[in-house]
């Protein structure tokens, strides 16, 4: 088979790009270093949230959204401050993406067979002024089927294209070099790795059995970021956030190593915004890990009391689910790599969800019956499993027992019962009236004005020390790595730019390796639901542009 385009990376961006290329009748070679079991990459593991603007789901929930409001929120969240250079193309991609999310995105996804859970989630609530970070309204649309439900339509298209002779898919082919000739990228060189039967996400062998050298008119890099490469994360850590943590857990499989960033840079591609990353502060260690140091992110509602490692309550707006980057900055200033939630049984039943397709079998399995069981008393089965088996959970009937258990868990004895008791009592006194000066209580009461939060997301406000709402629960929270926000700088066609700002002939990039578009479509922060969406949009753009490039 003579190839028109070589796609490096079989994650979501690569699959979408391959679909666009084969729609145009192009012959594609799809390469990936992992076994076929890991087809779909990180997207398969995701909760499946997508950012949409003024959707039918929003309107049915009484949400008034608009492209203008979404763009206001994006700018306030991104904080683009390198607009003449590193942010130049990222901002252009952001504007194009918000337009996509407000216009054809839902209809186009619907045509692929993707459907949505009817309740729209409210992620990254902000807590700042109107032009500050965060979503002014709920925009987090959960795909029916979660991550696997997003991957499947594009995987199906790939397999149909294989049957038609338009795609050759070669897993266990690791690209080590981009081949250039007269300034253009003309192919790839790499190693064939030993066959592997490991399950999805499990580390695979790096033993080499042979080499390869393959050529095409264009190469499209869709290899993902560096979320599992803690050494590289620490090397590029953003100094304004304080020192990089010594102890982190990883939210992505070990193959998310960032290798192709350096390989593409060596071929002349420019990497921008290296210091921008997206790591969560509500991570817990997986009691049943798939990969090394496997972390799961809690998707919290707004009610839990958040304390630093010494037991001091975080100040506004650093509440659960409000401002990830702001909270990360506040916690790094403490000098400790962990923090705490204190909550009640009533809160965990209503407000705790766990990120990931495997932690939401009801949504992933598209079982309406199992989803309806979420309204029954008690936490979901995955959350209950963490309460029973996870090393980061403590359950107690009284606050002294709880604090004693927290100190015992860390062995540092940093927590003073009197300090925590004072803060909990102060918070509980604010529950005596419908009005309060406590902004977290104001926020959680305000959240329940949104019917989606009231139904499935935010517990009725109550005192933490109300025995009828207990027992008490403490959760130790770790920083969990996730996304690379910077990357290869690309124009709106996905063409990789060199150090002079000119496109490198024959070289394209999409997805996380390109900062989800332009080398940093998110700026410093994400509005959530924009990582999968960024892979889809940038993969679509780059795939279509590659098809045009190879027409001659």
What does this structure look like?
The chain is an alpha+beta fold. 33% of the residues lie in helices and 20% in strands. It contains 19 helices and 21 strands. The strands form 5 sheets. Strands 10, 12, 13, 14, 15, 16, 17 and 18 form an 8-stranded mixed sheet that branches. A 6-stranded mixed sheet has the order 5-2-1-9-21-20. Strands 6-7-8 form a 3-stranded antiparallel sheet. Strand 20 (495-497) and strand 21 form a beta hairpin. Helix 1 packs parallel to helix 7 (146-163) and helix 1 packs parallel to helix 19 (531-549). The longest helix is centred in the C-terminal third of the chain and has 19 residues, at 531-549. The protein is globular, with a radius of gyration of 23 Å. The relative contact order is 0.19. The model has no long low-confidence stretch (mean pLDDT 96).
Secondary-structure topology with pairs:
Elements: E1 5-8, H1 12-23, E2 28-32, H2 41-45, E3 49-51, H3 56-60, H4 67-78, H5 88-102, H6 105-111, E4 140-142, H7 146-163, E5 167-171, E6 173-181, E7 184-193, E8 208-215, E9 218-221, H8 230-235, E10 249-250, H9 259-266, E11 271-272, E12 277-285, E13 295-299, E14 305-308, H10 324-332, E15 338-344, H11 345-351, E16 353-354, H12 361-364, H13 368-372, H14 381-389, E17 393-396, H15 399-410, H16 417-429, H17 439-447, H18 451-456, E18 472-484, E19 487-488, E20 495-497, E21 503-509, H19 531-549
Parallel strand pairs: 1-2, 1-9, 2-5, 9-21, 10-18
Antiparallel strand pairs: 3-4, 6-7, 7-8, 11-19, 12-13, 12-18, 13-16, 14-15, 15-18, 17-18, 20-21
Helix pairs in contact: 1-7, 1-19, 4-5
């Amino acid at each position: 088979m003579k190839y028109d385009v070589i796609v490096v990376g079989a994650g979501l961006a690569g699959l979408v790009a391959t679909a666009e290329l084969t729609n145009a009748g192009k012959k594609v070679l799809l390469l990936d270093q992992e076994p076929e079991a890991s087809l779909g990459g990180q997207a398969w593991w995701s909760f499946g949230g997508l950012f949409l603007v003024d959707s039918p789901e929003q309107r049915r929930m009484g949400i008034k959204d608009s492209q203008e409001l979404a763009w206001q929120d994006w700018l306030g969240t991104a904080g683009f401050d390198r607009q003449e250079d590193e942010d130049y193309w990222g901002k252009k991609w952001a504007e194009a993406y918000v337009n996509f999310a407000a216009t054809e995105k839902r209809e186009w996804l619907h045509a692929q067979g993707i459907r949505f859970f009817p309740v729209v989630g409210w992620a990254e609530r902000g807590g700042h002024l109107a032009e500050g970070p965060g979503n002014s309204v709920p925009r987090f649309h959960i795909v029916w089927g979660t991550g696997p439900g997003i991957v499947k339509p594009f995987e199906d298209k790939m397999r149909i294209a294989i049957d038609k002779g338009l795609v050759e898919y070669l897993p266990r082919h690791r690209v080590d070099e981009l081949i250039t000739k007269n300034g253009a990228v003309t192919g790839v060189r790499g190693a064939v790795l030993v066959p592997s039967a490991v399950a999805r996400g499990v580390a695979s062998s790096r033993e080499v059995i042979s080499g390869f050298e393959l050529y095409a008119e264009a190469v499209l890099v869709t290899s993902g970021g560096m979320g599992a490469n803690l050494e590289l994360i620490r090397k590029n850590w953003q100094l304004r956030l304080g020192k990089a943590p010594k102890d982190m857990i990883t939210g992505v499989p070990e193959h998310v190593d960032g290798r192709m960033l350096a390989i593409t840079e060596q071929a002349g591609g420019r990497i921008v915004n290296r210091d921008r990353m997206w790591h969560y502060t509500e991570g817990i260690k997986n009691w049943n890990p798939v990969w090394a140091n496997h972390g799961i992110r809690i998707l919290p509602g707004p009610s839990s009391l958040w304390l630093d490692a010494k037991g001091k309550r975080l100040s506004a707006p650093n509440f659960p689910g409000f401002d990830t980057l702001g909270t990360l900055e506040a916690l790094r200033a403490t000098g400790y790599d962990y923090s705490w939630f204190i909550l009640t049984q009533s809160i965990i039943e209503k407000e705790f969800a766990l990120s990931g397709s495997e932690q939401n079998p009801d949504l992933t399995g598209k079982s309406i019956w199992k989803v309806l069981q979420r309204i029954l008393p008690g936490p979901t089965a995955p959350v209950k499993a963490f309460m029973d088996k996870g090393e980061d959970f403590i359950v107690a009937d009284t606050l002294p027992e709880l604090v004693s258990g927290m100190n015992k868990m860390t062995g540092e004895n940093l927590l003073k019962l009197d300090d925590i008791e004072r803060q909990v009592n102060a918070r509980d006194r604010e529950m005596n009236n419908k009005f309060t000066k406590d902004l977290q209580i104001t926020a959680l009461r305000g959240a329940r004005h949104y019917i989606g939060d009231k139904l499935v997301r935010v517990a009725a406000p109550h005192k933490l020390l109300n025995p009828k709402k207990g027992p008490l629960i403490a959760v130790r929270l770790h920083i969990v790595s996730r996304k690379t926000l910077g990357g290869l700088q690309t124009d709106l066609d996905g063409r990789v730019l060199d150090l002079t700002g000119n496109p490198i002939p024959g070289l394209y990039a999409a997805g996380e390796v390109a900062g989800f578009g332009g080398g940093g479509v998110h700026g410093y922060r994400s509005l959530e639901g924009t990582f999968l969406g960024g892979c889809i949009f940038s993969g679509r753009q780059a795939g279509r542009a590659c098809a045009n490039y190879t027409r001659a």
